[in-house]
């Protein structure tokens, strides 16, 4: 595939992923936040969420579900998304909160924080109000804005995909920092997911303060 052919393919993909935003635009809705999370499945670390409000003419090629992209590409896009976005925001809930209220509730709380932070930035920078929220898979009770949950939204909506990318980069950087603080678990590689190296680290060094004890109940019970 030539460079021109690849750019054409990415341009077509971009247009496809703007469908939900474009449908809302035709109804007079211009300020739409896409929301996604990263880190629901790992054994350690926080769940991180992001909300991104993109301009109607957003033209960055290559934005997709963060899981489909290399680390290098995600980091390139992370910079471009935050430069081009009208506004964005983050939310986070740590491992202790996840253990206390469960991962789904922790994710929803963090998503609400991300939406409100993005809405505040939009208000401050552009004097505009958020009008609609597109969310990957879940519905947020008590949200102050109309919402549309989309199953596999990070593959269907450009705003949700953008959110998935900046959330992933932010969480990855947090886990790399944890790798320096808690060596022996390969957090810099596995980002807290349950790889062989990670389980070997747990067996050798035990549980760290950033591990989700509710996710490791069987291991903890065996050691008790």
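-> sequence recovered:
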């Amino acid at each position: 595939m030539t460079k021109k052919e690849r750019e054409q393919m990415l341009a077509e993909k971009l247009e496809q992923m703007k469908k939900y935003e474009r449908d809302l635009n035709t109804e007079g809705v211009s300020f739409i936040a896409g929301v996604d999370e990263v880190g629901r499945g790992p054994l350690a670390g926080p769940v991180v969420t992001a909300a991104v409000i993109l301009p109607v003419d957003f033209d960055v090629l290559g934005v997709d579900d963060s899981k489909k992209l290399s680390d290098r590409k995600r980091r390139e896009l992370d910079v471009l998304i935050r430069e081009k976005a009208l506004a964005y925001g983050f939310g986070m809930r740590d491992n202790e909160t996840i253990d206390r209220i469960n991962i789904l509730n922790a994710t929803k709380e963090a998503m609400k924080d991300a939406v409100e932070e993005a809405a505040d930035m939009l208000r401050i920078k552009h004097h505009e109000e958020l009008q609609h929220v597109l969310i990957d898979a879940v519905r947020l009770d008590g949200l102050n804005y109309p919402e549309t949950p989309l199953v596999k939204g990070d593959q269907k909506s450009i705003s949700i995909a953008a959110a998935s990318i900046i959330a992933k980069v932010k969480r990855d950087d947090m886990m790399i920092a944890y790798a320096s603080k808690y060596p022996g678990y390969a957090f810099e590689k596995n980002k807290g997911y349950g790889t062989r190296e990670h389980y070997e680290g747990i067996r050798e060094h035990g549980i760290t303060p950033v591990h989700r004890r509710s996710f490791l109940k069987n291991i903890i019970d065996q050691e008790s």
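The two ends are 57 Å apart (CA to CA).
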